[in-house]
Specification:
mainly alpha; 3 helices
């Protein structure tokens, strides 16, 4: 899976956690964050969050 997938999943889990506060969304957030950290070779989760937060948004058309 590529970085766009992980960033999309992180955003999804953050939004769902804010709305419902389910533990599953918190776990999903950290799992995807850790996968992105390993993929990009970052040392800390803080570096990964900064990278994901500043990643350019790509618009997509969902049919």
């Amino acid at each position: 899976m590529d970085e766009q997938y992980y960033i999309d999943q992180i955003s999804l889990h953050v939004g769902l956690y804010k709305k419902y506060q389910y533990k599953e969304n918190e776990i999903g957030f950290y799992q995807n964050l850790e996968s992105l950290r390993k993929l990009k070779g970052f040392q800390t989760q803080d570096e990964t969050v900064d990278y994901a937060a500043n990643y350019p948004i790509k618009s997509r058309v969902i049919a």
